[in-house]
Amino acid sequence: MSSLKTFFNESITTTDPDVSSIIKHEITRMSEGLELIPSENIVSLSVLQALGSVFTNKYSEGYPKKRYYGGNENADAVEQLAIDRAKKLFGVPYVNVQPYSGSPANMAVYFAVCNPGDTIMGHNLPDGGHLTHGWKVNFSAKFYKSVPYHVKSDGYLDMEEIRKLAIEHKPRLMWCGATAYTREFPFEEFAKIADEVGAYFAADVAHISGLIAGEAHKSPVPYAHIITTTTHKTLRGPRGAMIMVTEKGLKKDPELADKIDKAVFPGLQGGPHDHATAAIAVALGEASKPDFKDYAHQIVKNSRALAAAMMKKGLKLVTNGTDNHMILLDLTPYGKGKGIFLQEALDLANITLNKNTIPADPSSPFYPSGVRLGTPAVTSRGLKEKEMEFIADCIFRIVDCIKSYQLPDDKTQIKDYLAKFREEVKHNKEIAKVKGEVVEFCKGFPIYQTLKY
Length: 453
Ligand code: DSN
Known about the structure:
Helix content is 47%, strand content 12%. The chain is α/β, with parallel strands linked by helices. Strand 5 (119-123), helix 6 and strand 6 (145-149) form a beta-alpha-beta unit. D-serine binds at residues 39, 102, 130, 179.
C-alpha cells in the first residue's frame, strides 16, 4: 500500500496538480456515492498497482515466445500467467488475453469465423443486447447480415423465435449475451439451436464472467464454441477483455484457437497493453481464491434483495426480479421516456445508474423508459442484503420527485423542458436530503482511503 502511495500519488501530486486534483475528485465521487451501474466495479489496490506498472512502457506484438520486439521475457511471463490462470479458472483449453476491450474481442471473433456478408444472429440492442451483436449502426451489422432476436413481452428471451430465425436464416455465428438482461442465460438451449443449424455459438459473458468464475451463474463452457468477456465488470479487473475457445469449439474447428489469435494480432490490434495484461493476471488470481465465490454469490443475493425491496415499494421491474447482478426498472407506470429524469435526479443524490431501454420501449434509446442498475460495485464495498433496503428507499424517494415530469412528444421542446427540469431538481429539497443521507451512509463503507492525491 505504502509503495503505491509513493509510486504514483506523491509523484503526480507534485508534477501534475491539475490531473492529480481531477483524480482526487473522482475518488471523492466514488467514495461519497453509491455506484449502481451494473457494468462497473471497484478494483483492488493490487489491480491498480499492476495497471500503473512499468509494463505500460513495453511493446510486445505477437504472443509469448513469439514476439516481434526484444526484451519481452517479463511481458511473456505475465501474459502466460494471465492465460494459465484464465484457463484454470474457467476450465477452457485456450485463452487470448490481448483484446483491448469487449468490442474488439467480439470483432476478433467475427474476423476469425465469418466472412463479410455472412449472416449472424444476436440479441437486439433495444431488447438488452450489445452493439457488437448486430446492431444496425455497428460494424457487426454493416459488414455482416444481422438477424436480431428479441425478448418476449415478459422480458425473457424468446427461444421459439430464436430457433425459428436460426432455421430460416442459417447464421454462421450466433451470439448469446446482453448488456441488459436480468435472467440466467439458457446456454444449453442456444447450443442445441446453433448445433442444429451448424452455427458457431459464441457466448459473450462480459457482464457475468465474475458470477461464472464464482459459480453464481451457470457456465457456458460445455455448450459454447467461443466465449468472450470483458475483464472489468463482475470479474473485477482492469479494463480489458479475453477470448476463450472451449473443447467443443476445438472439436468443431481444430484451428479455431489459431484463427482467434491471428484475428486479434495481426488482424485487428498491434501491441498488447501489457500493463492491462498484468492487472488481468492479478484479477484472475483474486477470482481464483475461495472468497471470490462468496463475493459472486453476495452480488446475486444483494441484487435479489434490492429487487425485492424495490418491488415491495411498488416499483415495476422487467421480469419481476433478477437472477444475476442486474435489475431493470420499468418507469412506464409514470409515463414514457422517464429514464433520463431518474438518472439525472439520482446523480444529484450521489446514486449512479444508467438510463436504459426496456423491452418494447414506447420511447427511444436516447430517451428510454427505464433505468439499469446492479450490485457488483456496492458488493465489493461490503454492502449486504440489509443495506439494499436503504438503497431501494432512496431510489423510491427520488422516483417520487421526478414522476410528474413528462418528456414532451414534440422533439423540439425536449431541450427546453430538460433545462427547466435540471434547474428545478437542483433546488429540490428531498433530493438534497437523500444526498446527505447517502454521503453519511457511505462513510460506513470506505474505499481507497490510502490513495492520497
Ligand atoms: N458498456 C457496457 C455496459 O455498460 O454494459 C457494455 O459494453
